[in-house]
Design goal:
The chain is mostly helical. It contains 19 helices and 12 strands. The longest helix is centred in the first third of the chain and has 32 residues, at 7-38. The structure holds zinc ion (2 copies).
Length: 443
């Protein structure tokens, strides 16, 4: 049906439908305003919402419409404005300066979103300083209702905010303080059991976050042109990376956190204390040796694959715990398998960064992989087996069936069968310029 329409008809119908939808939204708001009025607090238990078994009109509407709390509260808020505007001569109107906004909604000429944008952008009169009077807001709202025909709700909100700023120079500092008070990093749980972080930075921190984000992802968005060859190569590497920009930003921010908490500086110690944040994994020896089953991440009970268990063990070492049949811990024999700080320095000097293909991650970004898979091959923590891999490539090796082996010539990367049917080993040359210098000297 729609695929036979001309472009201009398609756009016209889209506009008409959207007008219809916003008209329906405005009517819904008017009805919600009346429900709110019949549920007003002074009626107590006799109010409509309470009689229906809901504490607030918003909760009642949410139940009736199966919509979100946000939508229900928008409907009641805007509906109240619309209702107040119709109450001729009413003294009850809570926000008389939005009379015209409410009237436009009631008349069907202003959408719920637009009304909300005007209201939240303009705010209330400043009682304390008297800098913004109800009359100021009344005339600002008048102009915005007219402008609403031309712009979308986001732009309207921006204009309303800036109108408020113009009226209330003194309020700028107040709002800045309010934004500062609201700064937060919140952690919630997703339905799949994983954590979700919601970051609301204050004004200054937001600018910093933005700058970090833009710097990390700029090659993706074609923002900056690089002149320097090294920068150019860096930018090309990032643009051709198969990760999405969101995934890429996630990996970068996680890596920055890792670097920060492992930094041996006083500043870092002062923030994280002496306990190093880390990921701990529990797995049975039977599962590891049979290469069947799964491990679990301590503290969140989410099962993870053995490949991931092995990679984490490869990077962070392991502690062997023995239990008797009734589950009492018997022995806390330590079986550490970690490269020491000195061994890492040696690896960094010898390999110069991630050894995978053309990857250019410096040693700082790398984890030390054990070339003979430890749990599988019972390898030793031998410095000769250490291969620096950035986190991304370390993950690739363990979880996607790549293999790294060593002989006298050096390290060899063996691709999985899906990548190369013949699994031809690829030599992994060192990236270390210092090592090249050394070889030139001794040649
Ligand atoms: Zn590894
Ligand atoms: Zn790499």
């Amino acid at each position: 049906m729609v695929n036979t329409l001309s472009d201009s008809d398609l756009l016209r119908i889209q506009r008409e439908l959207s007008d219809l939808a916003s008209g329906i939204g405005a009517s819904a708001a008017v009805v919600a305003g009346e429900i709110g009025h019949r549920s007003r607090p002074e009626l107590g238990y006799a109010g409509l919402a309470q009689r229906e078994g809901f504490r607030t009109p918003e909760a009642l509407i949410r139940h009736e419409t199966k919509s979100t709390a946000h939508n229900a509260s928008a409907l009641v808020q805007v509906g109240t404005m619309a209702r107040d505007s119709g109450d001729v001569g009413a003294v009850s109107s809570a926000e008389p300066w939005f009379r015209e906004v409410g009237a436009a909604v009631a008349a069907g000429s202003l959408s719920v979103d637009a009304a909300r944008a005007i209201r939240s952008g303009l705010g209330s009169p400043s009682e304390r300083t008297g800098a913004v009077t109800p009359d100021d807001l009344l005339s600002a709202a008048h102009l915005l209702v007219i402008e609403a025909a031309q712009v979308d709700a986001d732009e309207l909100l921006r204009r309303a905010r800036s109108a408020r700023d113009d009226l209330d120079e003194a309020g700028i500092a107040d709002r800045e303080r309010a934004a500062f008070e609201e700064r937060s990093v919140r952690r919630t749980r997703r339905p799949n059991g994983l954590s979700r972080y919601i970051i609301d930075p204050d004004i200054e921190s937001a600018a910093f976050w933005d700058d970090v984000y833009d710097t990390l992802t700029s090659p993706r968005r074609g923002g900056v042109r690089f002149v320097d060859d090294a920068d150019k190569a860096w930018a090309e590497g990032i643009s051709s990376d198969e990760r999405t920009t969101d995934q890429y930003a996630h990996d970068c921010f996680t890596q920055l956190l890792r670097i920060a908490v492992s930094a041996e500086t006083g500043e870092s110690r002062r923030i994280v204390g002496s306990r190093q944040p880390a990921v701990r994994v529990l797995v049975t020896r039977t599962a590891l040796e049979a290469r069947q089953g799964h491990g679990r991440i301590e503290g969140c009970d989410i099962p993870i694959s053995l490949e991931t268990v092995e990679r984490i063990a490869c990077e962070s070492g392991t502690v062997q715990l023995d239990f008797d049949e009734s589950g009492r811990p018997l022995d806390l024999g330590r079986e550490q398998r970690l490269y020491s700080q000195r061994q890492r320095i040696a690896l960094a000097a010898a390999q110069g960064g991630c050894m995978f293909g053309d990857c250019d991650r410096p040693p700082r970004w790398c984890e030390a992989h054990h070339a003979k898979h430890w749990k599988r091959d019972h390898g030793e923590t031998n410095i000769l087996d250490g291969v620096l891999l950035c986190r991304y490539h370390h993950l690739l090796v363990h979880n996607n069936g790549w293999e790294i082996v060593r002989d006298d010539a050096g390290f060899w990367l063996i691709p999985p069968r899906e990548v190369d049917a013949d699994q031809r080993p690829r030599l992994m040359p060192s990236k270390s310029a210092a090592l090249r210098d050394l070889r030139l000297l001794s040649a």
